[in-house]
Structures are given as structure tokens and as C-alpha cells.
Write a structure and sequence with these properties.
31-stranded antiparallel sheet; rod-shaped
Length: 313
């Protein structure tokens, strides 16, 4: 009574009970079930140890913490009701799981598969990192964006469902691909070959630019026009299938050629030699003008008439 201690020993049930009213501690030991129970009312702690199942349970009501350790399954479980955090560690499967209900975050780490998974329900973001495959995946449901990064293949993929845009970047092949489903535009850039390709399905236009060969090609399917520009050879070619006109201009040779298949007219102009040639197959007329020699020749094949004018002589 002086120490406020009560000790009860039962040899038949193999139970030992110790109660200390001064320290507010209760200790129960059962050798038959291999269980030890410690209750401290002053610190609000309950400790349960089971040596048969290799389980240790610690409950702290003051800090609102529950700790469970299982040595047989190699599992540790920690629950904190004050911070709303649950932590699960499995050493056998090399998995760590963290759940925070206050921040709405779930974190899963697997050391065997080298995978880290982060889920945030408040920001609607899912992040997956795989160190074995060198892949990072980010999904944002609020912004409708999916981002995939592969460091092994050097590929970055971005998909935006709100703007209907897909972007693919390959650093190994030096290729960038942009697809916009809202504007119906496809853009392909290849830095290794110095080629840029633009396709617009709404305007029916295809544009090809090659910086290595200095060539620009424009195709318009709506107006049936094809335009080819070569800066290296200084040649411009224009083909109109609707008007049946072909125009070729060479700035290096100073030659312009115009062919009209609808009117059956061919026009050749040479600015270097001061030469102009006009051929009309429908009117059966050929006109040749040479400004350098002051010579004009006109031929009428229908009337069999040839006219020659020499202003020099």
C-alpha cells in the first residue's frame, strides 16, 4: 500500500499482472500466449508485444499515433490521426506507401521495380517515375495534360486534350512533331535534315522547307497551285492546274518561261540576250523579238505569211 503496487502471479495460467497506481502503469505478461501488455494512463500509451506472432503494437492516445510492427511479414504500419497520415513500409516487397488525407496525397515507392507513384487528388495530378525504364509520366486531369518523358529513347510527348494539341520531341532523331486537331495543322521539323513540313487540312495547304537544299515547296489543293522556289539555283516554278498555267523564272540565267495550256500559248523571255519568243498554237502564230540585234520575226502558219523586220539594217 505504501508503493501503491499490486502484483498478481498465476502459475496455472502463466500470467503475471502488475498494477502501479502511483505511476498509473498496468503490466500484463502471459507466457502461455507469449503476450506482453503495457498500459500507461499518465502518458496515454498502450504497448502490446506478441513474441509468437512477432507483432508489436504501440498506441498513443495523446499524440493520436498507432504503430504496428510485424517482424514475420517485415511490415511497419504507422497511423497518425492528428496529421491524417498513414505510412506502410514492407521490407520484404521493398514497398513504401504514404497516404495523407489532409493534403489528399498518395505516395508509393517500390525499390524492387524502381517505381515511384505520386497521386494528388486536390490538384488532380498523377506522377509516375520509373528509374529502370527511365520513364516519367505526368497526368493532370484539371488541365487535361499528359506528359511522357523517356530518357532512354530521348523522347518527350505532350498531349493536351483541352487545346487538342500533341507535341512529340525526339532528341536522338532531332525530330519535332506538332499536331493540332482544333486548327487541323501538322508541323514536322527535322533538324538533322534541316527540313520543315507544315500541313494544314483546313486550308488544304502543304508547305515544305529544306534549308540544306534551299528549296521551298508550297502546294495548295484548294486553289490547285504548286509553287517551288530554289534559292541555290535561283529558280521559281509556279504551276496552276485550275488555269492550266506553268510559270518558270530563273534569276541566274535571266529567263522567264510561261506556258498556258488552256490558250495554247508559250512565252519565253531572256533578259540577258534580250530575246522574246511567243508561240500561239491556237492562232498558229510565232513571234520572235531580239532587241540586241533589232530583229523581229512574225510567222503566220495559217496564212503561210512570214514577216521579218530588221531595224538595224
Amino acid at each position: 500500500r505504501s508503493t501503491h503496487v499490486t502484483l498478481l502471479i498465476s502459475r496455472s495460467t502463466h500470467v503475471t499482472l502488475l498494477i502501479s497506481r502511483s505511476t498509473h502503469v498496468t503490466l500484463l505478461i502471459s507466457r502461455s500466449t507469449h503476450v506482453t501488455l503495457l498500459i500507461s494512463r499518465s502518458t496515454h500509451v498502450t504497448l502490446l508485444i506478441s513474441t509468437s506472432t512477432h507483432v508489436t503494437l504501440l498506441i498513443s492516445r495523446s499524440t493520436h499515433v498507432t504503430l504496428l510492427i510485424s517482424r514475420s511479414t517485415h511490415v511497419t504500419l504507422l497511423i497518425s490521426r492528428s496529421t491524417h497520415v498513414t505510412l506502410l513500409i514492407s521490407r520484404s516487397t521493398h514497398v513504401t506507401l504514404l497516404i495523407s488525407r489532409s493534403t489528399h496525397v498518395t505516395l508509393l515507392i517500390s525499390r524492387s521495380t524502381h517505381v515511384t507513384l505520386l497521386i494528388s487528388r486536390s490538384t488532380h495530378v498523377t506522377l509516375l517515375i520509373s528509374r529502370s525504364t527511365h520513364v516519367t509520366l505526368l497526368i493532370s486531369r484539371s488541365t487535361h495534360v499528359t506528359l511522357l518523358i523517356s530518357r532512354s529513347t530521348h523522347v518527350t510527348l505532350l498531349i493536351s486534350r483541352s487545346t487538342h494539341v500533341t507535341l512529340l520531341i525526339s532528341r536522338s532523331t532531332h525530330v519535332t512533331l506538332l499536331i493540332s486537331r482544333s486548327t487541323h495543322v501538322t508541323l514536322l521539323i527535322c533538324r538533322s535534315t534541316h527540313v520543315t513540313l507544315l500541313i494544314s487540312r483546313s486550308t488544304h495547304v502543304t508547305l515544305l522547307i529544306s534549308r540544306s537544299t534551299h528549296v521551298t515547296l508550297l502546294i495548295s489543293r484548294s486553289t490547285h497551285v504548286t509553287l517551288l522556289i530554289s534559292r541555290s539555283t535561283h529558280v521559281t516554278l509556279l504551276i496552276s492546274r485550275s488555269t492550266h498555267v506553268t510559270l518558270l523564272n530563273s534569276r541566274s540565267t535571266h529567263v522567264t518561261l510561261l506556258i498556258s495550256r488552256s490558250t495554247h500559248v508559250t512565252l519565253l523571255i531572256s533578259r540577258s540576250t534580250h530575246f522574246t519568243l511567243l508561240i500561239s498554237r491556237s492562232g498558229h502564230v510565232t513571234l520572235l523579238i531580239s532587241r540586241s540585234t533589232h530583229f523581229t520575226l512574225l510567222i503566220f502558219r495559217s496564212t503561210h505569211v512570214t514577216l521579218l523586220i530588221s531595224r538595224s539594217t
